[in-house]
């Protein structure tokens, strides 16, 4: 009797919980960016439609093609009407499983692997993504759609003529040596904070951001801050192939007009291949942090030497990749008839996006520094 009563009670509880579960599920379902993307009433036949299959950094997102040279693209909430389905790598699971399991993929639909964070910051096994995606869209130069964080271009002849008539001293008015602005705290596989601590034994470095309880001065204007500092520590959270972010393009070379001390990419050539000539100082060019600190102090005393790292500004200018530029890259490639009609599949995405072969840890001579980073890296790769 008691068991029968218990079963009936459990059944009632389950029946009562099901509607509640459905309500919560529908609420989440409706909040997801996938289901809040406006669809045009009468899109042209040539219009390319994109379906955003995942959130981006756990938030809804959208694409805007209004300012693009090729702008005949829209986002849609109709999976089967989409010419392309975009998966953001940070949240790719379980969304990929969902669409692969419950949706029948149209034969001409392009599935795009979209990534802005490095392989190290991706918590899943990329081997499970082989033979799924048609295109890749990341900061890596080997991507099908290259969406870097920035770049540089040559000034026009008129702009160069104007600059030749002016005298520039980028050291003038800069009374402070170096700064870093960052929100990612704790141990990182790049050894960012370990290197900062080593350098602080020899030079003054002002650290701004959540990590050291020193907020960026309001308003947080990197251009104004750059007028005070000569160097910006453009240290990435991971050292992976081609991974060079806005810390380099925007904060240092761009708005801040500071000389970047860089720690990122897989090799120094990741920077030298894509940046203006003689525009940065790579931390790994020096045998020890002390040697790097001494070189920074030398440049601080010798304005002529310091200004050599700004000479490129007379012939080139940098730009920081805006969100709209990324969207334009998607639209432009979808309208490339030859590329779109060609059938392609990434049979080995694991090689393309592999943190164990495409990323590494900085190796500085300081034993405590080196061992701490190596231990953390082994720990990280062991659990992810």
Brief descriptors of the model:
alpha/beta, Rossmann fold, 2 domains, 5-stranded parallel sheet, 14 helices, 15 strands, 16% strand, globular, Fucosyltransferase, EC 2.4.1.-, transferase, transmembrane, Glyco_trans_10
Description of the molecule:
The chain is globular, with a radius of gyration of 25 Å. It has helices spanning 2-31, 92-102, 157-164, 192-199, 222-226, 246-254, 269-272, 289-301, 303-308, 323-334, 337-341, 349-352, 355-358, 367-383, and strands at 48-52, 73-75, 84-88, 110-115, 135-138, 145-146, 150-154, 176-181, 205-208, 229-235, 239-240, 259-263, 281-282, 316-320, 359-360. Strand 3, helix 2 and strand 4 form a beta-alpha-beta unit. The chain has two domains: 33-146, no CATH class; 153-320, Glycosyl transferase family 10, C-terminal domain (Rossmann fold). The protein is built from 14 helices and 15 strands. The model is unreliable at 17-44 and 363-384 (pLDDT under 50). With 384 residues, it is an alpha/beta fold. The chain has a six-stranded parallel β-sheet with strand order 2-1-3-4-5-6. A five-stranded parallel β-sheet has the order 9-8-10-12-13, sandwiched between helices.
């Amino acid at each position: 009797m008691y068991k029968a009563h218990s079963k009936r009670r459990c059944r009632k509880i389950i029946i009562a919980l099901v509607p509640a579960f459905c309500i919560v599920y529908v609420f989440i379902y409706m909040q997801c960016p996938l289901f809040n993307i406006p669809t045009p009433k009468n899109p042209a036949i040539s219009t390319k439609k994109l379906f955003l299959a995942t959130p981006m950094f756990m938030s809804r997102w959208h694409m805007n093609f209004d300012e693009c040279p090729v702008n005949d693209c829209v986002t849609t909430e109709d999976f089967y009407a989409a010419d392309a389905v975009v998966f953001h790598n940070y949240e790719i699971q379980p969304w990929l499983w969902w669409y692969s399991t419950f949706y029948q993929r149209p034969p001409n639909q392009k599935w795009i692997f979209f990534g802005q964070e490095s392989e190290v910051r991706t918590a899943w096994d990329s081997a499970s993504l082989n033979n799924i995606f048609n295109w890749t869209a990341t900061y890596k130069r080997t991507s099908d759609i290259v969406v870097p964080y920035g770049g540089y271009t040559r000034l026009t002849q008129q702009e160069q003529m104007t600059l030749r008539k002016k005298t520039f001293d980028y050291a003038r008015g800069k009374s402070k040596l170096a700064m870093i602005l960052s929100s990612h705290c704790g141990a990182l596989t790049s050894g960012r904070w370990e290197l900062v601590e080593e350098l602080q034994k020899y030079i003054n470095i002002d650290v701004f951001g959540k990590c050291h309880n020193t907020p960026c001065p309001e308003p947080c204007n990197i251009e104004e801050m750059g007028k005070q500092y000569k160097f910006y520590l453009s240290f990435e959270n991971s050292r992976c192939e081609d991974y060079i972010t806005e810390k380099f393009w925007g904060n240092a070379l761009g708005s801040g007009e500071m000389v970047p001390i860089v720690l990122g990419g897989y090799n120094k050539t990741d920077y030298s291949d894509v940046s203006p000539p003689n525009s940065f100082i790579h931390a790994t060019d020096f045998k020890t942090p002390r040697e790097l600190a001494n070189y920074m102090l030398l440049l601080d005393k010798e304005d002529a030497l310091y200004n050599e790292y700004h000479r490129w500004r007379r012939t080139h200018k940098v730009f920081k990749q805006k969100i709209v530029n990324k969207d334009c890259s998607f639209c432009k490639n979808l309208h490339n008839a030859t590329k779109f009609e060609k059938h392609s599949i990434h049979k080995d995405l694991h090689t393309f996006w592999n943190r164990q072969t495409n990323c590494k840890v900085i190796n500085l001579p300081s034993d405590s520094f080196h061992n701490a980073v190596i231990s953390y890296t082994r720990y990280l790769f062991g659990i992810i």
